[in-house]
Sequence to fold (281 residues):
Amino acid sequence: KGALAAMVAAVSRHLNRHDPAKGSIAFLITGDEEGFAINGTKRVLVALDEAGERFDHCLVGEPTNPTVLGDMIKSGRRGSINCKLTVRGRQGHVAYPERAENPIPVLLTLLDRLNARVLDEGHPPFPPSNLEVTSIDVGNPTTNVIPGNATAQFNIRFNIKHTGDELTRWIEDEVALSDLHFDGHIDTDFHVTGEAFLTPAGDFTTLLQDAVEAETGRRPALNTGGGTSDARFIHNYCPVAEFGLVGATMHQVDERVPVSDIEHLTNIYTTILARYFEARP
Fold:
């Protein structure tokens, strides 16, 4: 939220110092960025596009710096897909396994196959894609009963070598193989929360780097690591990059940044606006 305050202050300064006739400045401020992100920015962008609004560039105020202001600009992000697998077998007594169909070995074998695949070795400037199992649940409090169901959840963060649809098809193919010799069923639930994207280095990213360096003395690296943001929706409409505060304490109960960093960020945003509109024809 500190970046938003810095943006508001920077725009105020810019409008007091410069003729705004060369273009327009808009804020896109929504909720629902975390989690499934069904509403918020995603739907606002669709509505704006249908209304005929067009954007030249977008700067997102995510906390992109790991340790100090000026470290890093996010010029792209990995995609993300969440998957829940539910293996439905047949409950029974452990002494009579022929009367049951244990879902646990099937689930573990399937997860092992999925986890064993090396998705890629990276695709510069992206790191390698990775699959992380986040939960395995049976909910069985007894030792002598084979459970009827077993579930697992995992997430894949993927670079631009993949798409959400391609990874979904791969998982579904692996599930189909597991179903061949299993007298049960495997349900899948997928949610692609964003596709991988990259804003190539060029005039826009150079302008951002120059403005940050002028204020901090550090030239920020262009980076694509970390989590995701609403930039995953914005890149479909215009080139987008992210630069904000230091994220060392984000999502902690005492999340905080120095006031001096917000002041420096305001200066950076003010410089970006001035140089951006100076470069326009």
Residues 87 and 107 are 6 Å apart (CA to CA).
